[in-house]
Amino acid sequence: MGNISTVHDTFVRGLLADKQLAVDYFRSALPEHIADKLDFSTMEQLSETYVSAELEKTFSDVVHRCRRKDCAETVDISLLLEHKSSPDKYTPVQVGGYLFSGYQQQIKQGHEQLSPIIPVLLYHGRQKWEYWTLDRLFDELDQDLLGFIPKFDYVYHNLRDLSEATIRAVSNQFLVSALLVLKYAFDKQRLKVKLPEILSLGLAKGSEGQQAGLVIYGFELVDYTDKQIKEIFKGLPAEIKDTVMSTYDLLIEKGIERGRQEERAKIHAEKLEIAREMIKDGFSIQQIVKFTKLSIEEVEEKL
């Protein structure tokens, strides 16, 4: 997804693919007066995206829909995944583009009555980032001109500045662990110290797939020595120790296999380079194939 960090994006998408985790996340992220209006039992994840091609470089989105409690009207709750590591004061312009792109898609889909979109901007980058509205980008405009500036709000869920106590108050303990790993994702030294405790908090409450996803995400963010890994395993509660150890073993195997694939690709690239030079020197296809062990088709492609 453009410049968006695939590791973070994949992890959050995996979390919100589970309906209960999505419900509990939005309950915690939305303002209480908004959450109280929504019937979360009707929540469903939508397959479409509201992110335009231009916005793909900055945003990824996960779109859910649920009904309002007081009527049959639906509301789209959209999570914008923002993985910039530095503040961007022009984010309100991007959010506005996202909103209008979403409403345009609803019109194209034949909706006579548009469904409200509540954008939730999830931020967990390194630097402090203040909430900005669009009107703040225009310097000293009088009231008459401000009327021409689109006015909209978005929910700014800033994990970086959210206290641990607030996150730990979320009822879903697996979600607590996931949000804490996200909170410290760009503070590697702190995450390195806190990861065992974070896993102990709620890992056991997730499904096997969720547990594996959280362990892999956490260990991919930090570098432990073999000695540190052994110490971590010793201190883990018995109920999660086997899961963490087996998942870590899979992660090691994945890394070894990735290394093997990279080495094979490197050797193959070197053979292709040798073939190019042999072609320049006038060697026949049969001679090149015999020497490099490449296929005839691969050599002919270089002619």
From TrEMBL:
It holds the Pfam family Transposase_31. PANTHER family: INACTIVE RECOMBINATION-PROMOTING NUCLEASE-LIKE PROTEIN RPNE-RELATED (PTHR34611:SF2), PTHR34611. Residues 7-192 form the Transposase (putative) YhgA-like domain. It comes from the Bacteria. Belongs to the Rpn/YhgA-like nuclease family. The lineage of its organism: Bacteria, Pseudomonadati, Bacteroidota, Sphingobacteriia, Sphingobacteriales. InterPro entries: Rpn/YhgA-like_nuclease (IPR051699), RpnA (IPR010106), Transposase_31 (IPR006842). This is Transposase (putative) YhgA-like domain-containing protein.
